[in-house]
Design goal:
It contains 10 helices and 6 strands; from the N terminus they run βαβαβαβααααβαβαα. The longest helix is centred in the middle third of the chain and has 17 residues. Helix 8 links the parallel strand 5 and strand 6. It has 268 residues and is α/β, with parallel strands linked by helices. The chain is globular, with a radius of gyration of 17 Å. The protein has a single domain, classed as Rossmann fold (3-Layer(aba) Sandwich).
Length: 268
């Protein structure tokens, strides 16, 4: 697993570890522009999901959302070393985070979803998405990967084919799509849902739809934002995150539980 800079340090034990989960065909480097905007208070850990970036996929890790959710929960708990955890997923990474959430129990302090929504099964659009993704995997110039080793865009060139194809297929399966609202409804922590008003990969209406199942949620629409706000508008994204963290009490003093204050329930 690729170790992100700043994963260890003198962070207060009552401040949760923010675990940032990248989307399909990307890597943990996607979050690099956001990291300095949250420092020094918030410790951001951005792992490469197995089969993506620099993290190989173990043979016993199946390329589906449930398996990746179990991997994420276990890896996050090891990294947190007893601290509370905030899961922050982007796009498909948000679905992985939803699968990991119930496995963290009381260690989970909050959930953030960025450009992640759905819960509505659409046979034809999903079929087109699978065909397009398969075509890309077949035609991508993988030989360019080593030349882009330090780039966040290395992921699409070097991602393991079986992991990429498996996650795409299983995440667009009827059962997986219909499971998302149930996982969202089961969240026992405050959740923040962020989407760009110009996001064409995950349109705001689908984010609002899935967020509506969460008992304690807030939706934020980023003006002029697209699908990658951590790259396009990192300062604005950091402001939204830090303001929400404070609002739900995640900056509380030792001895005051991070969930002592209810998160704001709302929408845009």
């Amino acid at each position: 697993m690729r170790a992100s800079p700043g994963t260890q340090g003198a962070h207060a034990p009552h401040i949760p570890l923010v675990v940032a989960v990248h989307g399909w065909m990307l890597s943990g480097r996607l979050w690099d522009p956001l990291r300095p905007c949250l420092a020094p208070t918030w410790n951001l850990w951005c792992p490469d999901l197995p089969g993506f970036g620099e993290c190989p996929r173990p043979r016993d890790l199946q390329p589906n959302l449930a398996s990746y959710g179990r991997w994420l929960a276990s890896a996050a708990q090891r990294q947190a070393q007893g601290r509370s955890i905030v899961l922050m997923g982007h796009s498909l990474g948000g679905s992985v985070a939803l699968h990991a959430a119930p496995l963290l129990g009381s260690q989970l302090a909050a959930m953030v979803q960025i450009g992640s929504g759905g819960g509505v099964y659409q046979p034809r659009p999903f079929a087109r998405l699978r065909r397009g993704g398969t075509t890309f995997l077949q035609l991508r110039p993988r030989w360019l990967g080593p030349w882009a080793a330090q780039s966040p865009w290395r992921g699409p060139l070097m991602a393991e084919t079986r992991a990429a194809r498996g996650l795409l297929a299983t995440s667009t399966h009827r059962g997986a799509v219909r499971q998302l609202p149930m996982l969202t409804a089961a969240l026992m922590v405050p959740s923040l849902w962020i989407v760009g008003e110009r996001d064409r990969v995950m349109e705001p209406r689908y984010v609002r739809h899935l967020a509506s199942f969460a008992p304690d949620h807030r939706v934020e629409l980023m003006a002029r934002g697209g699908h990658l706000p951590m790259c396009e508008q990192p300062l604005l994204l950091a402001e939204l995150l830090m303001g929400w963290f404070v609002g739900i009490g995640l900056d509380s003093e030792p001895g005051v539980g991070p969930l002592g204050q209810a998160g704001a329930v709302g929408g845009t």
